[in-house]
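User: I've been going back and forth on whether these two constructs are worth ordering. Before I decide, could you fold them both?

Assistant: Sure. I'll take them in the order you sent them. The first construct and its structure tokens:
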Amino acid sequence: MNRMSPEAEFLLLCVQPTDASHGSPQAAARNAQDLVDACLDFDALFELAGRHRLRSLLSRRIDDMEIHSIPHGAHTALWTWSVRVESHATGYADELARTLEAFESAAIPALPYKGPVLAQSLFGDVGLREFSDLDILVRADDAVRAAEILVANGYVASAPNLARLMRSSAEYHAEYVHATKGIGIELHWKTDSRFPVEEAFAQPWWKRHHREPFGESSVRAITASELLLVLCVHGSKHHWSSLAWLVDVAQLMCGRNAADFESLIEIARRFGCERRFALGLRLAQRLLNAPLPHAAQQWLASQGEAIEPLCSRLSQHLLAREAVEVSVFDRLRLDLHLCDRVRDRISHTAGVLLRPTGEDEHAAGGSVPIASALRIARLLRRYAA
């Protein structure tokens, strides 16, 4: 990887896990202070942290690490942003609690993940993880009833025909926005269209989750190990365009033992997402000093030839001074490289070309052949451009 900018190096030092069992927080603080003393470009730092939704966490860590000589204007800007994020997060957390209560009253089991629940779990503070919507997973059989409850509580669907959307194998969630509050909810019936992690674990998956404290109540919680695989699949799908997602992964890697990783590696191998899992772990280890037990490091080394070129390239993209635009062709190449098997590459290519989305089916009035034709026409226009 090319030499990173001082601003990127400072940001990584500040947002890496603080678990003293895998490194020295004091050394990280000293290195961060040295970078400040060498005259950081704080405008560039603010822009980079903002692009990755890490300004609030950066502000807290600067205070926790007792880093001095931060310009007053930069410190004030970060503090002002963190106050805004905390207010936003608190409002979303309250809305999540109300929504889950409505689902529970209708006997609909619901699992919130990411958003304020993940912020509380990882950092002990909902205001330290920036997010734009709420992700709630329900059983496919309950999705229509859950959607009706959302609509009854003031939410508007982006795609009105949920049943049609659920018939598309390319879709796994529907978006809803509150008409007056502007709060967005992604209602999931799968964690992912191609790699629904909940199907990879021992059944009955929905009956074995514990509850965690959240606000004045408690919520159903996905286990940390399961969530680690979910987040790695999600991040790889979006080619790790946000450093905040890697911060989540790095925090979750802390405290996981060898047995956790061995179990997840086996599931990822069986499920066909081994490279995706390995890429997330390797990026978190490389950029954020995330801990891994020896056996997991050996497995990661065996994946090196497949993932190291991607790791280097995506690291450069993440830490560039300006956001890097990735072409449609490059996205397809990245996706194909992340496929574990040849048959997966063939299936993925066929899916990209032929599998209509819910938007395609809606435009085609529910006709699958017409929707497939629209899909091909849309891709031809997109690739031609």
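The second construct, handled the same way:
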Amino acid sequence: MAHELSPPPLRPLTERLLAALPGPAALWIALWALVPWANAGANLLFDTERTSAVWEQSDALIVLNYAALSVGVVVTLWGARRIAHRLEALRTAATGDVFVGDLREHFRELNSARGPLALALAASVAFGGAALVGEGLGPALLRGATWLVLGIALWTFVWAYASLQLGLYRLGRAALRPDSRSPDLGLQLRPLGGVAFVGLWMLLVWLVPVLLTALEDVVGVVIGGIVIVAALATFFLSLLGLHRQLVKAKTAELELARELYAQAYEPVRTERTLDALERQRGLLGAADSLQKHARELHDWPIDEGTFARVLTITTSVVAMAVARVILDPLGL
């Protein structure tokens, strides 16, 4: 009898590249993070630094922008790997027993190499083409090569984040195992909300500093606001299906509790005696317990603390954007 092959382990492109390179991965991550500074030095060598919008800002913002890019490289390299490892860990945890089939199958796009490479190449051609028109062949090759190297790291994380959101959406529509509609369903699905939150805050940690240091005042605030809204929208939309699964399970438990109440009170209504009520005490207790537990079930696969952290991150980013608009005209 043929056995169905399980999906391959989830490993994003950058993790496979780092594993294939000789030496420790930390060394290659550090070298990868230095690419923006190498690009800055080469720009000075070509004497083209004043043609870039980044170099038209204050010296402090220029340094912060390159530092943000370096931090972004580290965050995205670590983040793509973190998302994959968290999802792999869920396969062997209670969450992996909730859905029919292998959990990895829902996140299969995360293993794609063509997607991130195509996006990185497109960004490289776009940046290089713009430099070719305005600056010449040498700066064009430099900028194109720089954004190809950076793009592999950045776009692999974006691809991993999008694959995570798509996988969570699929799980929201996936079939549950017959024995998974239990009082523990909320706890079993909560780690999925945790992975979604990890992806969200890593996306913001990477993008927001770059946007706040690289763009002009109003443009930066507008684009930063769009990024925040899009990130929050994908975060909640990806969990909407799981929310519906939990609401359905909660409704089923409440309906069962109501049925038990009806069964318990039927003899009492018929006989109208204390003895009848005493005989049904056990069934009434079970109905009370079931109803209480059902009402305590969370409707979302995330806890109140995660909601608070999402709100804190959002308000902090908005505050930084507004502060830049206020302080920049003052030269601060």
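Notes on the second construct follow. Residues 13-330 form one domain. The chain has one domain: 13-330.
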